[in-house]
Specification:
By secondary structure, this protein is α/β, with parallel strands linked by helices. It has one domain: 3-Layer(aba) Sandwich (Rossmann fold). Helix content is 44%, strand content 15%. The structure holds nicotinamide-adenine-dinucleotide. Belongs to the short-chain dehydrogenases/reductases (SDR) family.
């Protein structure tokens, strides 16, 4: 049994999907959780729904001052910060030759830069206060070109956050901060609609490529993230766990 009693966790993009499921898991293990999302109303609504022990806050992960203010306010309000889940993410389906500059930049800003800002600001606090755990959410798309949908900006951002975990784990190991990544497969959340989940042909193609022949429940990813965030994973740092129903096997 994972025991997170007394721990304070932040889940970015936690208002729905994998982030909300992770919040529920962390709370079930005894942590208090701050859901931080660019959709503040949705974060507060999710916090009420998942309460007690959950708090909704605003953050835009693309804005380093917003991320820094979140870390400072959590530390001031709760007196500690133990776990940071870099979960916020966006994806827009597009072929490289049609990819508009602004879509490329927006995707890199949220998925790669936003993850770095979160890790850096949480890591700054954790390195100075005796340690902690950071988990970045990568993707199968970091390890295999997905098809029939394509989204090169997302894919390179997601391999970036996986490698970021290795580099930061090395930098911060002696400070007691562990950094890992989870690379989920096709998981049944709203983001899948942005890459074609409403299209029966695309869904059929995905299912035919997944050895387990199914989408993943957000709770299945949440359990892996919670394990990595806990002391049960005390010797694991700088790793990527593939939770993808066999997609990259
Ligand atoms: P989702 O769209 O349901 O949730 C993403 C959340 O991030 C939303 O609540 C959104 O408001 C928030 N967000 C977006 N931009 C933000 C910003 N600038 N600042 C703060 N919050 C922001 O998606 P999900 O499926 O739950 O995805 C969660 C993570 O898992 C993402 O990083 C995604 O890339 C990754 N992932 C998802 C799948 C999948 O199949 N669902 C597969 C692999 C990886």
């Amino acid at each position: 049994m994972i025991d997170l009693s007394g721990k304070i966790a932040v889940v970015t993009g936690g208002a729905r999907g994998i982030g909300a499921a992770t919040t529920s898991q962390l709370v079930a293990c005894g942590a208090q959780v701050v859901i931080a999302d660019v959709r503040q109303d949705a974060a507060e609504e999710a916090a009420r729904r998942l309460a007690p022990g959950v708090h909704g806050r605003y953050v835009d992960v693309t804005d380093s001052s917003s991320v820094r203010e979140l870390v400072e306010s959590v530390a001031a309000e709760f007196g500690r910060l133990d776990i940071w889940i870099n979960n916020a993410g966006i994806v827009e389906d597009s072929l490289a030759l049609d990819l508009a500059d602004d879509v490329w930049q927006r995707t890199i800003d949220v998925d790669l830069t936003g993850t770095f800002y979160g890790a850096r600001e949480a890591g700054r606090y954790m390195c100075a206060h005796g340690g902690g755990a950071v988990v970045n959410i990568s993707s199968i798309a970091a390890y295999r070109a997905t098809r029939p949908e394509h989204h090169v900006a997302y894919d390179v951002a997601k391999i970036g956050v996986a490698h970021m975990a290795k580099v930061l784990a090395s930098e911060w190991a002696t400070a007691g901060v562990r950094v890992n990544a989870v690379a989920p497969g096709y998981t049944n959340t709203d983001i899948l609609k942005d890459v074609g989940a409403n299209n029966p042909e695309i869904m059929k193609s995905w299912l035919s490529q997944i050895p387990q022949g199914r989408l993943i429940d957000p709770e299945e990813i949440a359990r892996v993230v919670t394990f990595l965030a806990s002391d049960a994973a005390s010797s694991i740092t700088g790793q990527v766990v593939h939770a993808d129903a066999g997609f990259t096997a």
